[in-house]
Amino acid sequence: MTSGLPHFTSCADVIARVAEFIDSELDQADCAKIQEHLDECGPCLREFGLDQLVKDIVKRGCGCEPPPEDLRLKVMIRIREVQVQITIED
Question: Which residue, among 42, 43, 47, 17, has the nearest Cα to 32 in the 3D structure?
Answer without folding.
Answer: 17
